[in-house]
Each structure stands twice: as C-alpha cells, then as structure tokens.
Amino acid sequence: MTSSSSEVRDPATCAALSEFRMHHVDLELEVQMAQRRVAGVATLSVRRLEAGAAAARLRLDVFHLVIHSVCVALPEEDTIAAQWSVQPFTTFGDALEVELPDELAQANAFELTIRYETDPRSPGVCWLEKEQTAGKKLPFMYTQGQEVLNRSLFPCHDSPSVRVTYTASVIVPNELVCVMSAKLCDVEDYVPESEDGGKEDALPTKKKFTFEMKQSIPVYLVAMAVGDLVEAEVGPRSSIWTEPCMIEAAIKEFDGVLEEYLAIGERLFGDYLWERYDMLVMPPSFPYGGMENPRLTFVSPCTIAGDKSLVSSTCATTWCSS
C-alpha cells in the first residue's frame, strides 16, 4: 500500500488493475505438436475503470510469448493497429505495453486483439513425448496456469483477483483430442483455407474443438490438454477422460463415486455450480497430484488406487478454489 493511495497492488502482475480490467477472453488457437508451439489470436474484452479515466496505456502480462500484432477496437467496430512494446517486468514475466489511440480515449469498453505464439520455453505450456505417456503412441500437451503461468499461454491480466469468462476454438491434429476447463460445444473437421480464400481439396488432417465458459473464473484456471484421449461416463454429471489403455481402470475406480462425493459436498457446502464435474487422468509423467480446474480436474494416475480412496479431496476442493 502506498502513502498516496489506498490501493492494494498484486505484485505478481504488471497491470494497473485500478485502471483497466479484462472480463472476457476469446481464444483462437492451433496446437502444433511437432513444433511444440501454440499459435493463436486472443481477443480481450476490457473495461476502463474510474481511476483509468485519463490513462492512454494498458499493460498486460506475457511470458515467453512471441507477439506479432496488437489491434484495438470499440465493440462491434473495425480494429485499429496499436503501437506496442514488450518491457521487462520480473523474472516470471514481462509487460506488453499497448498505447491506446485517440479513438479510445473516452471509451469505457473496448477490445484488444493480439496475434501471437508461444515458444518452447513457455512454462505454462507443457509438452510430453509419446514415450512419456501411458500408451506411448502419441505426444501429449497440457497447460498449468497456477499460480501465474497462463501469461505464457495468452496475454492477460494474470492476477487471481481478475475473473473472466472465456470462449475458445482449438485446432489440433486429427488423431488427438482437446479438452478444456469449459463446456465442449462442438467438434468438427478442420480444412484450412487455400491461398485464394477457398477450402483446400485435401482430406482434413485436423479437428477444431469449440468451448465456452459462461461463469467467471480466475485467469489461472483457464486450462487445456491435448492428447490421445477417450471419454467414459461415470455418473449423471461426470465423465472420465484418459488414454485408451487406462480407461477401464479409470471406470472401475470412479464409476458412481464422483456423484456420491458431489452429493455429500452439496449437503455440506451448497449447490455445485459448475454443471459438470469431469476428470482428466493425466499421463504417468504428470508431476502434480492434481489441479482442480472448473468442470475438469486434472489428476495424477496415482489417483487410480484400486480402492476409490483418493477421490474425496479433489471433489471437495472444487467448492473452495474456483
């Protein structure tokens, strides 16, 4: 707390959160497994707060992102190219500084569209060789945003005090599946456009997954995984996702028990607000016990203990951490 202001700042973010706050993000991503890269466009919906009435510069958290362009726009209007630069901030992130043009000087709401890509050093984007998976057939990718690592997945106000809704479309190789901490809305074959703007004639080699999270969540809980995944229903509002070679053991471990613990949690803590409680059983090289993302908890394969004894803690955490 400074002597001139009662504002309490989050030291882990470069953003002046008393001036601007993002409240929605739309992600258009392509996961390029061979290059260990995610190429994307992030469109951030931003509100100008009272303390930022005269502010002409906005700062976003980034880390090991290659920024290609930044545009700004009023809602539903054409974009304008913005001046930007990446400045040092701390050992775990940099500041993407965006100069707001005069057209936005009085705007209380506007959008930032940033074209970028990750690089292989991005710490929140984790890549596994096929040998590191259970099936040892296909590579795997997952994100780990906690505590402030989603700035290496997309530019953002990377503070737990900032809550956002989000939508995403994710293009992946045809043999892989994408899951996120959001509702899966659609899956379709993806055929890229040819140079003349039409569709290429070749058979599709990629798929596009579309997601939506209508409830606001802290930025670090935007989560994604891509791999050789299959799904099995284990309750009226729960599914298990895992590699094909682990699905039978996962069904045996979790069938019926997730709903049992959800019902107990609701009696103790109130309604479960996320509609779905799904689990992704991660590959053996996953270095954490679990990550309780909304709608989709990432868990270690060690959770498959054979006696259904390690489920309760991950269920309980969903009432406390999201």
UniProtKB/TrEMBL annotation:
GO biological process, one term: proteolysis
Cofactor(s) essential for the protein: Zn(2+)
Molecular-function GO terms, alphabetical: metalloaminopeptidase activity; zinc ion binding
Domain Peptidase M1 membrane alanine aminopeptidase: from-to ranges: 264-312
Xref: Gene3D superfamilies: 3.30.2010.30, tricorn interacting facor f3 domain
Aminopeptidase N-like N-terminal domain ranges (all copies): 24-179
InterPro entries in the cross-refs: Aminopeptidase_N-like_N, Aminopeptidase_N-like_N_sf, M1_LTA4H, Peptidase_M1_dom
UniProt entry keywords in alphabetical sequence: Hydrolase, Metal-binding, Metalloprotease, Protease, Zinc
Family in the record: Belongs to the peptidase M1 family.
Name of protein: Unnamed protein product
